[in-house]
Amino acid sequence: MPTAPGVPVAPRPGASRAADQPGQPPAGDTPPDLAPLALDLSEMVTTAPSLDLLDATEIPSAPAAEVTPVPGPATVEPLVAASPAPMSPAPVSDEVQVEATPPAAESEAEPESVHILEPYPEQSDTSQAPSPYVYQGPSLYIVQITPEMAPVAKVGGLGDVVFGLTRELSIRGNHVEIILPKYDNLRYDHIYELHVAFQDLWVPWYEGAIHCTVYFGFVHDRKCFFIEPHSPDNFFNRGAIYGFNDDLLRYAFFSRAAMEFLFKAGKHPDIIHCHDWQTALVPLFLFEIYQHLGMTHPRVCLTIHNFKHQGVTGQELLRATGLGRPEHFFDYSRLRDNHNPHALNLLKGGIVYANFTTTVSPRYAFETRDGGQGFGLEPTLHTHHLKYGGVVNGIDYDVWNPEVDRYLPVRYGLDTLDGKYDNKRALRHRFLLADNAKPIIAFIGRLDPQKGLELVRHAIFYSLEHGAQFVLLGSSPDARINADFWGLKRMLNDSPDCHLEIGYDEELSHLIYAGADMLLVPSQFEPCGLTQLIALRYGTIPVVRAVGGLADTVYDKDYSHRPLHERNGYVFENYDQPGLESALGRAIACYYQHPDHFRELMKNAMRSDYSWNIPGMDYLNIYNYIRDK
Ligand code: ADP
Predict the structure, then answer these.
(1) In Å, what is the CA distance from 477 to each residue of 95, 240, 503, 617?
(2) Residue 527, ligand 1, Cβ within 6 A
(3) Per residue in 227-272, pLDDT tens?
(4) Element (H, E) at 589
(5) How many CB atoms lie under 10 A from the CB of residue 498?
(6) CA-to-CA distance for 384 and 226, rounded, in angstroms?
(7) How far apart are CA 97 and CA 574, in angstroms?
(8) Number of H-type helices and E-type strands within the chain
């Protein structure tokens, strides 16, 4: 099990409190102490070792586009307001001020059930206020170096993040380029005007060099470079993205090649943004090699999408990449793995050398640093806590939006909410479910232990026994897990209230998000989670466990300290059946007993802004903050 068992989960004040025993405050309701994450410029500079920072004479080659100030969200407060302390950097320079809204005060006592039909603040109240999230810095030249980008090379959420974030940065007037491996299984049907951009790139590798060609193409308007090595190693012509014995060397090579390309092409971005262990060597290459060759301008942001995978390897890597100097890199303060003194840990190296490291939600940032979920990197995160924070992912509202969703039989929005029920009927029709007054509870996701599969299973039976229908869409690469769910499917085959769809079907997922009344996400751990964000957009009420990004985005209807109009779902703390039942039971009861309240909750959910608007500005503030370090 990847999570540390028994880790106390401390919800943030003002955010989603859960109550596993209705009417009782949840256990461990203590705000985590995150105060040190407030950034201090002077200290931050000293935290990156050997980074002979900023030669101010370097001039970036970014186009001087104007930044168009974008108004802040009209309907929700900044996400940082939900954190005990701003984990994304609150710039402290004179140039940019980001206000951190203090957490909401603890209330005296919780009512057992808070009805949400009380007067709401007018939308215009919040939209008139100046947003602390308007980015006021200059336009930047940003290069994303990434192993994945949707839809051309997507395995998981990382690919979606690069795709969505890149567009947000571009529409704000920044110049953004993306560097990817040229996999043989890229979705070439999504790449336009593909052509050779750099014919002969020789990338140092062991004692020699590998000849590469760099291609350029547009992926839905995003400017992408694809690196193709010509070597018998055949690094990226394997018909799959990951899963090979030499994955570490493949991505070490890619990282080195991307840096060599920037150097040889004379590119001097303000910011290089790299992702996960696969590209965590980028800041090492920059500050240990290319800076000495004159590449003094770029600064590096590393985003970690899941701490479970860290890239732990041996000394060979230093020889292959030309980094050499084992005595230097095996130092505990640099790459030496925190547990195995004979191994190098690439993710650790990335944290040490990057100018800033983010993960995909503030809560997960806390859990990885202080909640036992850092998979051994906790001491490293503590050492570098001044340059570590969490930014919740966004979702692409061009794709996930019931008003324009081309996969829905009937489109709908806040003002045409009844259209949702046409989709509910269509979903029932598709799965041959009974057309009755019951709510539909859905689960969509990988059938991975991380997702809380025991609780999913329990929820199916609980729902059927408590007057609800249940729909599941999921699959697993693990044959045993698939077989388990096939067994369950056969067992429930005759039920008019249940359908399990074992497989991956993007189009069908749209209909389920639209047609279901509630979406269950009972994860053991969840760095950010996208399904609950999509569900909110479709007015489908999330029922989630209070971990990671789920805790940062779903606010319990009855027990959150958030204002009533921001509460958008049901939350439970404990990873056990009573915990799950406490939240699911309340959701089902509200659906039957207070349909008007349930409908208001749906509207709250649909008003939540989980687009890239706010995270885009968070990242720009981080970039701008590290630019002068
Ligand atoms: P993770 O990255 O851990 O898999 P996320 O919640 O971050 O989980 O993202 C899951 C994404 O994959 C969502 O967009 C979800 O709709 C989609 N998804 C997961 N399983 C399926 C499936 N079986 N069919 C269609 N889409 C799926």
Answers:
(1) 49, 14, 10, 36
(2) no
(3) 999 999 999 999 999 989 999 999 999 999 999 999 999 999 999 9
(4) helix 577-593
(5) 23
(6) 32
(7) 38
(8) 19, 17
pLDDT of residue 12: 32
- Strand-pair partners of 312: 345
Whether 377 and 387 have beta carbons less than 8 Å apart is answered as: no
Is there an atom of ligand 1 within 6 Å of 542 CB? no
Provide the token pair at 404.
């324009």
Tokens at 457, concatenated: 């299973």
pTM across the whole model: 0.80
At what angle are helices 479-491 and 453-465 packed, to 10 degrees?
Answer: 10
What single DSSP character describes residue 12? P
Please tell me the predicted confidence (pLDDT) of residue 155. 85
Residue bearing the CA closest to ligand 1, atom 12: 445
pLDDT in tens, 283-334: 999 999 999 999 999 999 999 999 999 999 999 999 999 999 999 999 999 9
Whole-number Å distance, alpha carbon 218 to ligand 1 midpoint, is 25
278 CA distance to ligand 1 middle (Å): 21
Interatomic CA distance for residues 44 and 17, integer angstroms:
33
- Measured between alpha carbons, how far is 350 from 342 in angstroms, rounded to an integer? 18
**Sign of the dihedral defined by the CA atoms of residues 597, 603, 605, 607, in that order:** negative
Q: Which residues contact 102 (CB under 8 A, 6 or more apart)?
A: 81
The answer to whether the CB of 131 is under 6 A from ligand 1 is no
N residues, the chain: 629
Three-class SS of residue 480? helix
Residue 22 CA to residue 576 CA, distance in Å, equals 15
The residue type found at 400 is W
Question: For residue 347, is pLDDT > 80?
Answer: yes
> How many whole angstroms separate alpha carbon 276 and alpha carbon 528?
14
CB atoms within 10 A of CB 454: 14
